[in-house]
Write a structure and sequence with these properties.
The chain has 282 residues and is α/β, with parallel strands linked by helices. The protein folds into 2 domains: 204 residues, Rossmann fold; 64 residues, rRNA adenine dimethylase, C-terminal domain (Helicase, Ruva Protein, domain 3, Orthogonal Bundle). The protein is 40% helix and 18% strand. A 7-stranded mixed beta sheet has the order 4-3-2-5-6-9-7, sandwiched between helices. Strands 1-8 form a two-stranded antiparallel ribbon. The longest helix has 13 residues. The structure holds S-adenosylmethionine. S-adenosylmethionine binds next to β1, α3 and β3.
Length: 282
Protein backbone atom coordinates (compact mmCIF):
# COMPACT_ATOMS: atom_id res chain seq x y z
CA UNK A 1 0.00 0.00 0.00
CA UNK A 2 1.29 3.50 -0.71
CA UNK A 3 0.91 6.29 1.88
CA UNK A 4 -2.24 7.66 0.28
CA UNK A 5 -3.98 4.27 0.33
CA UNK A 6 -2.67 3.57 3.82
CA UNK A 7 -3.91 6.91 5.20
CA UNK A 8 -7.39 6.39 3.71
CA UNK A 9 -7.43 2.80 5.00
CA UNK A 10 -6.45 3.82 8.54
CA UNK A 11 -8.95 6.70 8.69
CA UNK A 12 -11.70 4.31 7.63
CA UNK A 13 -10.58 1.42 9.85
CA UNK A 14 -10.42 3.57 12.99
CA UNK A 15 -13.23 5.89 11.93
CA UNK A 16 -11.30 9.14 12.38
CA UNK A 17 -11.24 12.45 10.54
CA UNK A 18 -8.43 14.98 10.50
CA UNK A 19 -8.83 17.48 13.34
CA UNK A 20 -8.13 20.92 11.87
CA UNK A 21 -7.72 22.50 15.31
CA UNK A 22 -4.75 20.22 15.94
CA UNK A 23 -3.13 21.02 12.60
CA UNK A 24 -3.71 17.51 11.27
CA UNK A 25 -2.56 17.33 7.64
CA UNK A 26 -1.45 13.80 6.93
CA UNK A 27 1.49 13.30 4.62
CA UNK A 28 0.64 11.05 1.66
CA UNK A 29 3.64 11.42 -0.64
CA UNK A 30 6.10 8.53 -0.37
CA UNK A 31 8.91 10.43 -2.11
CA UNK A 32 8.67 13.29 0.37
CA UNK A 33 8.63 10.86 3.29
CA UNK A 34 11.82 9.27 1.88
CA UNK A 35 13.46 12.68 1.54
CA UNK A 36 12.67 13.53 5.17
CA UNK A 37 13.98 10.21 6.45
CA UNK A 38 17.12 10.28 4.25
CA UNK A 39 18.02 13.84 5.12
CA UNK A 40 17.71 13.12 8.84
CA UNK A 41 20.58 10.58 8.39
CA UNK A 42 19.29 8.20 11.03
CA UNK A 43 21.41 5.28 12.17
CA UNK A 44 20.71 2.19 14.27
CA UNK A 45 22.41 3.93 17.21
CA UNK A 46 20.06 6.93 17.20
CA UNK A 47 17.05 7.94 19.23
CA UNK A 48 14.49 9.77 17.12
CA UNK A 49 11.89 12.00 18.74
CA UNK A 50 8.88 12.48 16.52
CA UNK A 51 6.50 15.31 17.39
CA UNK A 52 2.92 14.75 16.19
CA UNK A 53 3.07 11.27 14.62
CA UNK A 54 -0.62 11.38 13.67
CA UNK A 55 -1.56 8.10 11.98
CA UNK A 56 2.08 6.97 11.96
CA UNK A 57 3.00 7.15 8.27
CA UNK A 58 6.37 8.78 8.93
CA UNK A 59 6.76 6.86 12.21
CA UNK A 60 6.82 3.49 10.44
CA UNK A 61 9.72 4.60 8.26
CA UNK A 62 11.58 5.99 11.27
CA UNK A 63 11.09 2.74 13.20
CA UNK A 64 12.89 0.86 10.45
CA UNK A 65 15.93 3.15 10.69
CA UNK A 66 16.42 4.10 14.35
CA UNK A 67 17.33 2.26 17.53
CA UNK A 68 14.35 3.87 19.22
CA UNK A 69 11.52 6.24 18.25
CA UNK A 70 9.73 8.22 20.95
CA UNK A 71 6.56 9.87 19.68
CA UNK A 72 4.86 12.81 21.36
CA UNK A 73 1.21 13.18 20.38
CA UNK A 74 -1.59 15.25 21.89
CA UNK A 75 -4.60 13.57 20.25
CA UNK A 76 -5.86 10.53 22.20
CA UNK A 77 -7.53 9.13 19.09
CA UNK A 78 -4.19 9.05 17.29
CA UNK A 79 -2.51 7.49 20.33
CA UNK A 80 -4.96 4.57 20.27
CA UNK A 81 -4.27 3.99 16.56
CA UNK A 82 -0.49 4.17 17.00
CA UNK A 83 -0.50 1.82 19.99
CA UNK A 84 -2.46 -0.71 18.00
CA UNK A 85 -0.46 -0.24 14.82
CA UNK A 86 3.00 -0.52 16.37
CA UNK A 87 2.30 -2.95 19.23
CA UNK A 88 4.89 -5.42 17.91
CA UNK A 89 7.71 -2.87 17.60
CA UNK A 90 10.02 -2.91 20.67
CA UNK A 91 11.66 0.30 19.59
CA UNK A 92 8.39 2.26 19.65
CA UNK A 93 7.35 4.44 22.60
CA UNK A 94 4.60 7.02 22.81
CA UNK A 95 3.97 9.89 25.19
CA UNK A 96 0.57 11.52 25.28
CA UNK A 97 1.26 15.20 25.85
CA UNK A 98 1.20 18.68 24.51
CA UNK A 99 4.79 19.00 23.31
CA UNK A 100 4.90 22.61 24.51
CA UNK A 101 4.17 21.50 28.08
CA UNK A 102 6.40 18.43 28.15
CA UNK A 103 9.65 18.47 30.10
CA UNK A 104 11.84 17.56 27.13
CA UNK A 105 15.05 18.35 29.01
CA UNK A 106 14.29 15.67 31.58
CA UNK A 107 13.23 13.18 28.93
CA UNK A 108 16.41 13.67 26.92
CA UNK A 109 18.73 13.69 29.93
CA UNK A 110 17.26 10.36 31.04
CA UNK A 111 17.80 8.75 27.64
CA UNK A 112 21.02 10.44 26.58
CA UNK A 113 23.52 7.75 27.57
CA UNK A 114 21.77 4.98 25.66
CA UNK A 115 22.07 6.55 22.21
CA UNK A 116 24.81 7.99 20.03
CA UNK A 117 22.67 10.90 18.81
CA UNK A 118 19.22 12.24 19.47
CA UNK A 119 17.39 13.65 16.45
CA UNK A 120 14.01 15.31 16.11
CA UNK A 121 12.09 14.42 12.97
CA UNK A 122 8.54 15.65 12.36
CA UNK A 123 5.81 16.96 10.18
CA UNK A 124 4.93 19.69 12.67
CA UNK A 125 1.46 21.02 13.52
CA UNK A 126 1.61 24.40 11.75
CA UNK A 127 -0.38 26.38 14.32
CA UNK A 128 2.55 26.11 16.77
CA UNK A 129 5.60 25.71 14.49
CA UNK A 130 7.57 28.66 15.84
CA UNK A 131 6.82 27.86 19.49
CA UNK A 132 7.99 24.26 19.05
CA UNK A 133 11.23 25.22 17.30
CA UNK A 134 11.95 27.96 19.84
CA UNK A 135 11.37 25.48 22.68
CA UNK A 136 13.68 22.89 21.10
CA UNK A 137 16.45 25.46 20.80
CA UNK A 138 16.07 27.59 23.91
CA UNK A 139 15.85 24.66 26.30
CA UNK A 140 19.30 23.67 25.09
CA UNK A 141 18.46 20.05 24.62
CA UNK A 142 21.24 17.70 23.71
CA UNK A 143 20.05 17.27 20.11
CA UNK A 144 22.14 16.58 17.04
CA UNK A 145 19.61 17.80 14.49
CA UNK A 146 16.00 18.82 13.85
CA UNK A 147 14.50 17.81 10.50
CA UNK A 148 11.00 19.19 10.10
CA UNK A 149 8.23 19.93 7.65
CA UNK A 150 6.90 23.45 8.23
CA UNK A 151 5.13 26.22 6.31
CA UNK A 152 7.34 27.61 3.51
CA UNK A 153 6.74 31.14 4.77
CA UNK A 154 8.06 30.24 8.22
CA UNK A 155 10.96 28.27 6.69
CA UNK A 156 12.01 31.41 4.83
CA UNK A 157 12.13 33.38 8.07
CA UNK A 158 14.12 30.65 9.79
CA UNK A 159 16.76 30.25 7.13
CA UNK A 160 17.03 33.95 6.35
CA UNK A 161 20.22 35.72 7.28
CA UNK A 162 20.17 38.96 9.30
CA UNK A 163 19.52 41.90 7.01
CA UNK A 164 17.09 40.07 4.71
CA UNK A 165 13.48 40.92 4.00
CA UNK A 166 12.21 37.98 6.08
CA UNK A 167 14.46 38.59 9.07
CA UNK A 168 12.68 38.28 12.41
CA UNK A 169 13.63 37.62 16.04
CA UNK A 170 13.63 33.87 15.36
CA UNK A 171 16.22 34.34 12.57
CA UNK A 172 18.80 35.29 15.21
CA UNK A 173 17.81 32.44 17.50
CA UNK A 174 18.32 29.96 14.63
CA UNK A 175 21.56 31.64 13.57
CA UNK A 176 22.90 31.39 17.12
CA UNK A 177 22.04 27.74 17.70
CA UNK A 178 22.22 26.04 14.28
CA UNK A 179 23.34 25.65 10.73
CA UNK A 180 20.37 25.49 8.39
CA UNK A 181 19.63 23.54 5.25
CA UNK A 182 16.60 23.57 2.95
CA UNK A 183 15.73 20.05 1.91
CA UNK A 184 12.69 20.29 -0.37
CA UNK A 185 9.64 22.41 -1.12
CA UNK A 186 6.42 20.44 -0.72
CA UNK A 187 3.20 21.25 -2.61
CA UNK A 188 -0.07 21.16 -0.68
CA UNK A 189 -1.41 18.15 -2.59
CA UNK A 190 1.11 16.02 -0.70
CA UNK A 191 -1.27 15.98 2.29
CA UNK A 192 -4.81 15.10 3.21
CA UNK A 193 -6.54 17.32 3.95
CA UNK A 194 -4.56 19.86 1.92
CA UNK A 195 -3.18 22.79 3.93
CA UNK A 196 -3.76 26.26 2.47
CA UNK A 197 -0.04 26.94 2.28
CA UNK A 198 3.02 25.49 0.56
CA UNK A 199 5.36 23.59 2.88
CA UNK A 200 9.06 23.00 3.11
CA UNK A 201 11.31 20.47 4.80
CA UNK A 202 14.26 22.03 6.57
CA UNK A 203 17.12 20.60 8.59
CA UNK A 204 18.66 22.40 11.52
CA UNK A 205 22.02 21.06 12.66
CA UNK A 206 22.82 22.13 16.19
CA UNK A 207 26.14 23.95 16.50
CA UNK A 208 28.77 22.48 18.79
CA UNK A 209 30.24 25.93 19.43
CA UNK A 210 28.59 29.31 19.95
CA UNK A 211 29.10 31.57 16.91
CA UNK A 212 29.45 34.74 19.04
CA UNK A 213 30.74 35.51 22.53
CA UNK A 214 27.89 36.62 24.73
CA UNK A 215 27.92 36.98 28.52
CA UNK A 216 24.20 36.53 29.11
CA UNK A 217 22.34 34.71 26.36
CA UNK A 218 18.91 35.24 27.86
CA UNK A 219 19.48 38.99 28.01
CA UNK A 220 20.61 39.03 24.36
CA UNK A 221 17.49 37.16 23.21
CA UNK A 222 15.29 39.50 25.28
CA UNK A 223 16.89 42.49 23.54
CA UNK A 224 16.30 40.87 20.14
CA UNK A 225 12.70 40.10 21.03
CA UNK A 226 11.99 43.68 22.11
CA UNK A 227 13.79 45.13 19.11
CA UNK A 228 11.53 43.15 16.78
CA UNK A 229 8.33 43.73 18.72
CA UNK A 230 8.52 47.30 17.47
CA UNK A 231 10.38 46.72 14.24
CA UNK A 232 9.31 49.98 12.62
CA UNK A 233 10.94 51.96 15.43
CA UNK A 234 14.65 52.60 15.62
CA UNK A 235 16.66 50.43 17.96
CA UNK A 236 17.26 53.36 20.31
CA UNK A 237 13.53 53.95 20.72
CA UNK A 238 12.44 50.35 21.14
CA UNK A 239 15.18 49.48 23.64
CA UNK A 240 14.55 52.65 25.64
CA UNK A 241 10.79 51.95 25.69
CA UNK A 242 11.51 48.41 26.93
CA UNK A 243 13.60 49.89 29.78
CA UNK A 244 16.87 48.31 28.68
CA UNK A 245 18.41 51.78 29.02
CA UNK A 246 17.70 54.47 31.61
CA UNK A 247 16.86 56.94 28.87
CA UNK A 248 17.42 57.72 25.19
CA UNK A 249 20.74 59.50 25.82
CA UNK A 250 22.06 56.45 27.60
CA UNK A 251 21.02 54.22 24.67
CA UNK A 252 22.72 56.53 22.18
CA UNK A 253 25.89 56.61 24.30
CA UNK A 254 26.14 52.81 24.47
CA UNK A 255 25.40 52.25 20.75
CA UNK A 256 27.91 54.91 19.73
CA UNK A 257 30.54 53.41 22.03
CA UNK A 258 30.29 50.04 20.27
CA UNK A 259 30.07 51.61 16.82
CA UNK A 260 26.43 50.95 15.96
CA UNK A 261 24.51 53.54 13.91
CA UNK A 262 21.85 55.00 16.24
CA UNK A 263 19.25 55.22 13.46
CA UNK A 264 19.55 51.57 12.54
CA UNK A 265 16.52 49.26 12.32
CA UNK A 266 16.68 45.90 14.11
CA UNK A 267 16.81 43.75 10.96
CA UNK A 268 19.97 45.54 9.83
CA UNK A 269 21.92 44.27 12.83
CA UNK A 270 24.03 41.13 12.85
CA UNK A 271 24.01 38.55 15.62
CA UNK A 272 27.39 39.91 16.66
CA UNK A 273 25.91 43.42 17.00
CA UNK A 274 23.20 42.12 19.33
CA UNK A 275 25.83 40.24 21.34
CA UNK A 276 27.88 43.44 21.68
CA UNK A 277 24.85 45.44 22.86
CA UNK A 278 23.91 42.82 25.40
CA UNK A 279 27.49 42.60 26.70
CA UNK A 280 27.41 46.33 27.54
CA UNK A 281 26.44 47.54 31.01
CA UNK A 282 23.03 49.21 30.83
N1 LIG B 1 3.10 12.97 11.33
C1 LIG B 1 1.80 12.87 10.72
C2 LIG B 1 1.95 12.92 9.22
O1 LIG B 1 3.00 13.40 8.75
O2 LIG B 1 1.05 12.51 8.51
C3 LIG B 1 0.86 13.96 11.21
C4 LIG B 1 1.39 15.37 11.11
S1 LIG B 1 0.17 16.59 11.48
C5 LIG B 1 0.76 17.91 10.46
C6 LIG B 1 0.58 17.22 13.08
C7 LIG B 1 0.38 16.26 14.26
O3 LIG B 1 0.70 16.95 15.47
C8 LIG B 1 -1.03 15.75 14.46
O4 LIG B 1 -1.02 14.35 14.65
C9 LIG B 1 -1.55 16.44 15.71
O5 LIG B 1 -2.50 15.71 16.45
C10 LIG B 1 -0.25 16.62 16.48
N2 LIG B 1 -0.28 17.75 17.44
C11 LIG B 1 -0.97 18.91 17.35
N3 LIG B 1 -0.73 19.70 18.39
C12 LIG B 1 0.16 19.04 19.18
C13 LIG B 1 0.81 19.34 20.40
N4 LIG B 1 0.59 20.51 21.03
N5 LIG B 1 1.63 18.42 20.95
C14 LIG B 1 1.86 17.23 20.33
N6 LIG B 1 1.28 16.89 19.14
C15 LIG B 1 0.44 17.78 18.57
Amino acid sequence: MNSLEETKFLMKKYNVNANKNLGQNFLIDDDIISRIVDSAEITKEDLVIEIGPGLGTLTERLLNKAKKVICIELDKKMIAILEDRFKFYNQFEIIQSDVLKLNLKQLIDEKRKMYKNIKVVANLPYYITTQIITKLLEEQLDLESITVMIQKEVAERLIEKPGGKNTGAITYCIDYYCETQCIIEVPNDSFIPQPKVTSEVIKLKLRKQEPVKVKDKEKMFKIIKYAFMQRRKTLVNSLTNANFFKNKEDAIRVLQKIGIDINIRPEQLTLEDFAKISNEKM
